[in-house]
User: Fold Aspartate aminotransferase family protein from Bradyrhizobium diversitatis.
Amino acid sequence: SMLPNSQEARDVAYQLHPYTNARTHQQAGPLVIERGEGPYVFDATGKRYFEAMAGLWSVGLGFNEKRLVEAAHKQMQALPFYHTFSAKSHGPSIDLAEKLVALAPVTMSKVFFTNSGSEANDTVLKLIAYRSNALGQPQRKKVISRLRAYHGVTIASASLTGLPNNHRSFDLPLPNILHTGSPHFYKDGAPGESEEDFATRRAEELDALIQKEGPDTIAAFFGEPVMGAGGVIVPPATYWDKIQKVLKKYDILLVADEVICGFGRTGKMFGCETYGIKPDAIVVSKQITSSYFPLSAIILNDRMFEPIADESNKIGVLGHGFTAGGHPVGSAIALENLKIIEERGLVAHAAELGGYMQGKLRELASHPLVGEVRGVGMIAALELVLDKGRKTAASTPGAVGGIASRMLQERGVISRNMLDAIAICPPLITTKAQIDELVAAISGVLNDMKGEVAKLTPA
Ligand code: PMP
Assistant:
């Protein structure tokens, strides 16, 4: 169906895509998106799609926010590029650093700018190593993240990630990066175990891992407040308290990856606020510019910064930084984006509309295909099963594994298949009527599939 000189044919001729079967793509081709409006995007034929994943969890203000375009244009004219190496700076990055420190949910002091979530997490690992050297604890370099976590794809950040597909074929994880169990109660909770007991078990497992490795070798623990790409894993209410107690006992740093949760997603400015998380470093990206520009940042407290400052005084300057880090155009967009989020009360909107969305989605929980509906604020997932009692995963090819593609093709909804779950993460600017439209589309597809699944389910 690809025309010889079409965009699709040219894409197939020239592009290798991430997370795309490179072989079958040669036949199927891409979905080419041309423009956007609010939570919708449009393909080359003018067909409209509801972007229920906000791009990749990232476009908070929707796809045509003029004020962001104007902020970019103005900065392009004033100073299109400058860097922050060797004690140089520029207004937009100075203002943005100040803004991030002010917004942070705990006392923070400094910001280091990077270009992507992966680079930011990679950079945190470098800062931690540099800090441990500064403290005269060179053996303290191990970090712990969680199975099912997603922290990026560079060699080091992919090691932090706890998903097999990101390790397999790359000889990862790196040896100093360890994984402990995720707070996925639906999948990992033992029969008859309460959520509270499950959280206690996860904290005890973490404690045991630290003991086994030697507490003086563990520098930091990495975690997302709510895990996104691993399947929208909402932790039990007391999980973070219990984890933080263990970390405190051994004086281990806590790094919060707020790449998805940050700037309103969970109904608070930061996911850390939702769970009382008190991190030493916070990683932000994506929604900081509504993804209109690649920009990420690490917000640091003095516990991180002071030894780094000592080390750069003693040994030499921090030998790490990215040419485009804190880019003036990206920083100007971020400042305008954060201003709009505050002016329009979008965090409160995300809390209110998110509550409404969670309620509407939970009405689907009685559907025979839906094992669990989970989420908080404007992020949610439907866990799909063939057998509710046995929690038989519905990822069987040809069964309901294709639900995301059916939503796309039949209802014009872009969602995401993640293992056995469907993720929903609409832009913050979505309206109540648009949530109704989205939930009706999901419900419609689930009902269409009832018959098919009945045939596949063993009697
Ligand atoms: N951390 C989290 C929590 C993420 O969701 C992502 C991207 N989905 C990353 C890090 C990596 O960000 P990037 O793709 O910009 O490298």
In short: Residues 56-57, 116-118, 121, 150-152, 224, 228-229, 257, 259-260, 285 surround 4'-deoxy-4'-aminopyridoxal-5'-phosphate (CB under 6 Å). The chain has a mean pLDDT of 95.
